[in-house]
Structures are given as C-alpha cells and as structure tokens.
Amino acid sequence: MHQAHDDPRIGLVLVGFSPAERLAAIAGHLGWPGLVLSDPARELYARLNVGRAAWWRIYSPGTLLTYTRAVLTGTRLRPAVEDARQLGADAVLVDGMVTSLWRPRSPDDRPAAAVVLAAARAAVDSRI
C-alpha cells in the first residue's frame, strides 16, 4: 500500500510492463493517487538498469516464511501472473533526471515510502 503525501510539488507515477487495463486495476485496488503508465517493452527498466533477480533472491528465506505463514493460516496463494523475477525500482526524477534510485535485490528489499518521499522533497527543495 502506498503512503499518501500532501506535497503538491511531487507527482506520483506507477510504471509497469503489464497491459494498461491490468495496471489500472492494480492501481485502483491499491488506491494509487498518481499517474499509471504501461511500458510493455520495459524501456524504462532498461534505462534505469533494472534487471531481473536470480530465483534464489525471489524465493529468499523471508519470502518462504511469508508463504509458510499463508499456508498455516489457510490463506490461499495465487500463482504469479507476471514476471515474478522483475523487481522494479523506486526513483526520484527532477526535470527528467534521476536524483535518487533504489534497485531492490529481493521482493522485501524496497525502501519505505517515507524514505522515497523524503528524497523527493529534498530534491525539490534543493531546486528552490
């Protein structure tokens, strides 16, 4: 779930490689307040040098523990419908230039939303 922010100087953009309809459904489910873009050719991923993770990073001890808990509590697991090895990234851009970039090494290696928003605020503030 995203963390809401109240800074009108910062726009949120979700970019995925799924078809636009699927991304719109995900954004709606998450309550995503920003723009949603589909990049099926993964051109942005390539420009940011965001690769795919090795299978042992995807099925890390943390991920396996999550699956184990789900099975023990009777939670139904859904099979991945996308490229589970594509980790994505979090970035702050100012005037089209990347000022901060986080490339996760595993699904549980993402920065907190507060960290990304703080970097975005700092980037905007440095331009004033």
Query: How many helical elements?
Result: 5
| Count of extended strands | 4
Structural category is: alpha+beta
Overall shape: it is globular
Poorly predicted tracts of residues: none
N-to-C CA distance: 30 Å
Radius of gyration: 16 Å
Describe this structure in words.
- This protein is an alpha+beta fold and 128 residues long.
- It has one domain (13-126).
- 36% of the residues lie in helices and 15% in strands.
- It has five helices and four strands.
- It has helices at 20-30, 43-47, 55-58, 61-72, 113-126; strands at residues 13-16, 35-38, 90-94, 97-102.
- β1 (13-16), α1 and β2 (35-38) form a beta-alpha-beta unit.
Summarize the structure.
The protein is an alpha+beta fold and 128 residues long. Helix content is 36%, strand content 15%.
Task: Please specify the SSE layout and strand pairing.
Blueprint: E1 13-16, H1 20-30, E2 35-38, H2 43-47, H3 55-58, H4 61-72, E3 90-94, E4 97-102, H5 113-126
Parallel strand pairs: 1-2
Antiparallel strand pairs: 3-4
Give me some keywords for this one.
128 residues, alpha+beta, 5 helices, 4 strands
